[in-house]
C-alpha cells in the first residue's frame, strides 16, 4: 500500500462519521464537522487510488439514478463518473422542467425506479421553496417503501443542487481550497469574498452563494457576502452562516460594496445570481402558468442586473486582494467579458490566469460525490478501503 | 448457502424447461407450465440472492438493447434493472412512435445493433396487428444473421409489451399472487375479476386484460372478464383463455356486469382499456396518416368511455368481494379518483389501502425479466446458480 | 489457449506499433503500415476471444464518451459495443447539430467531461474544414489538461467520422476485404472501384470515398475513383492517395465513367456523396445562418444529382466486373432502388445477393474501434492479451 493512501486511511480512522451510514446528503449544515472531514478524506483516498490505478469498485452491479429537473451536462458527468468509479451504472430519469406534482405521483415514481437503485442523485434548483422539499419527500417515500418491504434496500440520496444548498459544489470548492492552502488547519482567519457579479443572463440560482456562505463559515474563515441591494440570499441561510461564525470562530459579514469584500481577500468567488424575491415571484408565476408575467419579470430582472455592470472580477478589482493574488474561484461556466459575452462576471485575462486552478476546483466534484455515496452505503469504510487497497485490482490493465 | 436459496434451486431441478434455452419470450401461451414455473423459481432465486447480497452476474460484459416504440419510464427501468443485475449494460434504441417500415429496414437495423447484443427487449403495443408481428420479424432476422455467420451469438428477445400479450407484467402479477396466496398450489378455485374500469384518458392498450386472461386461466383459477359492451378483447385471446380453462381445470367467463365479476372475487384487477375495434381503426388511421380521423376517433372514444363512469373500484364495489377483502391489483399507474383525475378507475381510499401490495406487485417485474434472460441464455441454470451462490461474491462490499 | 488466438498474438509480436500508445486515431494516413496491421490483428484477436467466450475486459471501471454532432444509431452502437467489450461505460454528450464555438468553450467542456474518461469518440462530419479541426483542438485541450495536472489521465480520441476521413469505417472495410481475399498479401494488384452513385437524398459526407481512397491505396491495390464532373473529393486527399500509390506499388486513377471503373474490378464500392464545392458553400451558409441560401443549395444539389441517375450498381453494371462477381461493398444504409427509394444507388437484386457480406463488413467496426482503444491505452498489448487468454474469464457463464 502506498504511504499516501495509508496516511489518508489513518486519518479517516480518527473521525466519527457513523451517522452518515444509511443517511442522505442534502444540506452541509445537517452534518457534523467530522462527517464533512470524513467525506474530504474519502474523496482524497478515492482520488489517490485511481491515480495509483487501484480499482475502488464497491459494487459488482447496481444502479445510480440521476433525476434532473434541468439540463446539466457537467453535473450529469460528475454523477456518472462517481457512480462508474464505484461500480454503479447510471440511468437517467428525465422529467422535464415542469414543476412536478408531489404526493401520490412522486411516491409511486420514487418506488418504481428504486427496486434496484443504490443511489439517487437529484438536481432541482429552479423553484424557491420546492427543490429541497422535493428531495425530503422523495427521501421519506423510499424510506417508507423500504420499511414496507417494497424495496430490498433503501437508495441513498445525494443533493446535486437545490434551491437552498449546492453541497457537492461547495464541498468540492472547499476541498480545492484545503489543497491550495495546504490543509484544513490553514483556513482559520482567511478572508473569503463571496460576491455577486454582473451577468447578461437571467435567473441564476442562489444555491452557490448560499452553499459557500453556510459551509466556508464552518472552518474559521472570515466570509464576506457582497451584493447590490435587492440581491439578498435566503435569510435562513444567512442565519446559518452567522451561527457558524459564532460556533467555529470565524466571521460572517455582509456588504453592498464589492471593493470592501475584495480588499485583502485570500479567496474571491464573484458570481451572478438572481434576487431572492424575484425567484420567489418566478416560482409563483410558473405555478400559475403566467407566461406574460414570466416574460415581464425576465425583462425587469435583466434591466435590474444592468444597473450593476461594474460588479466584475476585473484586473483592477483583483489588485485589491491580498498581495493582488487571491485565489479566484468559480463553479463554471463563467460569463467572461469579451469571450462568452460582451460584459460579464470576469475579465478574460483574470479568468485565463486562473484557468488551471479553476479546472482543478471542478475536478474534485466526482470524488466528493463518490465519497458521499461510499460513506452512506458502506458500514465500515476503513476496513473496506484497506481491503480494496490490499486487493489492488488494477482499474486498467497494463496502464 | 442459505437454506432458502437451496430450496429454491432444488425446486428448479425438478422442472423441465430446456426449451427456453436459446429461445425468445414473446407469449406466455407459447410456453409450457413447467417453463413458466421455472421462470418464477429463478425470479425467486435471483431476488433471494440479491437480498442476501450475493451477486448474480452471469455476464462479464455484454449489451441489453431496449427498443421501445413508446415512452416508458417504468418498463425502461425494469429492463435496465434486470440487465444490470446480470451484468449487461443497456443501450436504448429510440425509434420514435412512428409505425416503422418492416422488411429490409428492420432486418438491417436488427443485425446492425446486435453484433454484441445478448438480449433485446421490445415494447411495441400501439398498433393492433403490428407489435407481435414486428417482434416475430425481428426474431427471424437475428436468427438469419446468426445462421449466416453475421452475428457471433443470437440475441434473445423479451416481449416488454405488444398488441397481444404483456408477458412480463402478467408473470410479475402472477408471481405476486403466488406469494400473496402462499404458493401456486393455493390458486385453484380462486375467483379473479379482470374488469374494465373508467378512465378519462384515451386508448390504453389491451395487452394487460389479454395477458391476465391468458395466463391466470392456466392455474385452475376462475377468471371472469368483465367490460361494457363494445370493449371486447381480441377473440383469439379469449379462445386461448377458454382452452386453458378446459385443460387446467379452471374457468373463463365473460360478463357485462362489473358487480357480477366482483361478487365473492378473491382478486380484482379493474383497469381501463380501449375497445378492440377502435384500436383496429386507429391502426388504419395512423397507417393512412389521417390526422382528422384520429382526432375524431379520440373524441368518440372519450365520449364512449364517459357512458361507463360507474365502472370503478369504489369502496362499495370492494364490499362485494370475498369478505370485502379481495386482493386489489393494477399494473400502475392507476387513474385515482380525486387524485390523478376527477373520476377514475379506483377510489383514493381503496388505492391507498392497497398501496403496499401494489408496489410489491410491481417489484417482481425486474426479477421476472432477469429470469427470462437467464433461462434463455444459460444452458445449465441449476449448475450456474449453485456456482454463483458458492462463489458468494458480494453485490456490494460491506453492505 | 486456442491455436487461432495464439497465432494472432504471435503475428502481433512481430509488428512495431509502439507509437499508437497514448496517441489518438484521427487519420489513417497519420499511421504507419505496421500500426494499421497491429489494429487489424488486435481486432481479429478480440473477435476470436469473444467467439471463444473469453472476456477481453481491460477496464474494471471507466468511461467512454461519445460526442456526436449528428444523430447516428449505428455509429453509436458500434462505439458502445467496443467500449462495453473492454469494460467501459458509455456516456453520450449530445451537443446538437449546431456549429459549436471553438476555443474557450470547447477547452472547458473537454476538460469537464474528461476527469474520468478513458476514451472519447467524436463524430463531426457536417462541415467541411471544421470536423477534423475540432478533433485536433479537443485533443490539444485534453493534453493541456493532463499536462497541467487537471486530468488524472489523458483520454484517447477515436475519430468516428470527420470531414476528411472515416477511419473506423475504412479500416473495418479493409479488414473485411482482407478476410474475403484470404490475407493482406492477396490484395496486391486488385482493382477497387470507389464510385459515386445516384441518391435522391442530399448532402452525404465525403469521408467514405476519401477514407477508402487514402487507405486502400496503401496495400498495393489499384484504386479507381469515379464520379460525375463536379463531384470531386478534397484535393489534399487525392494527393495522399497518389503518394500512397507511388510508395506502396499500386495505383490511383480518376475517371468520370462508372463503366470504366467497374470494368474487371475485383471490388466495387458505389456510394453517393455531395460535391465538395457545395459542401464548402453549405458550411459557409450555415455559418451565416442563411436559411434561404441553404434551401436554395439543397434544391440545386438535388437537381444536379438527378442528372446522374444512371450512376447505379445495376445488374448490368455488375456484369462488367471481374467474372461478373466483384465484391460489392457499402457502408450502409444504402439507397436501394424500389426498396428504400424509387431510384437509388443499387438494384434490389444486387443488394440482396450481397446482403450477408455487407452485414459482415459492418460487423468488423466494433472490433476495429476496440482495437484502436486497446492499442492506445495499453502499454504492452501482447502481454495483456496473453494474460487475458490465460485467465480465460468467461464473458458469459455457461454459454
TrEMBL record, chains A, B, C:
Keywords: Transferase. It holds the Pfam family OTCace_N. The keyword Disulfide bond does not apply. It comes from the Bacteria. Residues 214-374 form the Aspartate/ornithine carbamoyltransferase Asp/Orn-binding domain. SUPFAM superfamilies: Aspartate/ornithine carbamoyltransferase. Residues 24-177 form the Aspartate/ornithine carbamoyltransferase carbamoyl-P binding domain. The keyword Transferase applies. Transmembrane segments: none annotated. Belongs to the aspartate/ornithine carbamoyltransferase superfamily. This is Knotted carbamoyltransferase YgeW.
Amino acid at each position: 500500500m502506498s504511504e499516501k493512501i495509508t496516511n489518508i486511511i489513518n486519518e479517516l480512522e480518527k473521525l466519527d462519521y457513523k451517522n452518515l451510514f444509511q443517511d442522505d446528503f442534502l444540506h452541509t449544515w445537517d452534518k457534523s464537522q467530522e462527517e464533512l472531514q470524513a467525506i474530504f478524506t474519502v474523496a482524497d483516498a478515492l482520488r489517490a487510488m485511481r491515480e495509483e490505478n487501484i480499482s475502488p469498485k464497491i459494487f459488482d452491479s447496481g444502479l445510480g439514478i440521476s433525476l434532473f429537473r434541468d439540463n446539466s451536462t457537467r453535473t450529469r458527468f460528475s454523477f456518472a463518473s462517481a457512480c462508474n468509479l464505484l461500480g454503479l451504472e447510471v440511468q437517467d430519469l428525465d422529467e422535464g422542467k415542469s414543476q412536478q406534482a408531489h404526493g401520490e405521483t412522486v411516491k409511486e415514481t420514487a418506488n418504481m425506479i428504486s427496486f434496484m437503485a443504490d443511489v439517487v442523485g437529484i438536481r432541482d434548483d429552479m423553484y424557491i421553496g420546492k427543490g429541497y422539499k422535493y428531495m425530503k419527500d422523495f427521501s421519506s417515500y423510499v424510506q417508507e417503501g423500504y420499511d414496507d418491504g417494497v424495496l430490498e434496500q433503501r437508495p441513498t440520496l445525494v443533493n446535486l443542487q437545490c434551491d437552498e444548498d449546492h453541497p457537492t459544489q461547495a464541498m468540492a470548492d472547499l476541498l480545492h481550497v484545503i489543497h491550495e492552502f495546504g490543509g484544513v488547519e490553514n483556513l482559520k482567519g482567511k478572508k473569503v469574498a463571496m460576491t455577486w457579479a454582473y451577468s447578461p443572463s437571467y435567473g441564476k440560482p442562489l444555491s452557490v452563494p448560499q452553499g459557500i456562505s453556510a459551509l466556508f463559515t464552518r472552518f474559521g474563515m472570515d466570509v464576506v457576502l457582497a451584493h447590490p441591494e435587492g440581491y439578498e440570499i435566503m435569510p435562513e441561510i444567512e442565519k446559518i452562516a452567522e451561527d457558524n461564525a459564532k460556533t467555529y470562530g470565524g466571521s460572517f459579514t455582509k456588504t453592498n460594496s464589492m471593493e470592501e469584500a475584495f480588499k485583502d481577500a485570500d479567496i474571491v468567488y464573484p458570481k451572478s445570481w438572481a434576487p431572492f424575491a424575484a425567484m420567489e415571484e418566478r416560482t409563483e408565476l410558473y405555478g400559475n402558468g403566467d407566461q406574460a408575467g414570466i416574460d415581464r419579470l425576465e425583462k425587469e430582472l435583466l434591466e435590474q442586473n444592468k444597473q450593476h455592470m461594474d460588479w466584475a472580477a476585473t484586473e483592477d478589482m483583483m489588485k485589491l486582494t491580498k498581495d493582488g493574488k487571491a485565489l479566484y474561484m468559480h463553479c463554471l461556466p463563467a460569463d467572461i467579458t469579451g469571450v462568452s459575452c460582451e460584459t460579464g462576471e470576469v475579465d478574460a485575462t483574470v479568468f485565463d490566469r486562473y484557468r488551471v486552478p479553476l479546472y482543478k476546483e471542478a475536478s474534485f466534484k466526482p470524488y466528493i460525490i463518490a465519497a458521499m455515496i461510499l460513506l452512506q452505503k458502506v458500514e465500515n469504510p476503513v476496513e473496506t478501503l484497506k481491503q480494496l487497497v490490499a486487493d489492488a485490482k488494477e482499474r486498467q490493465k497494463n496502464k
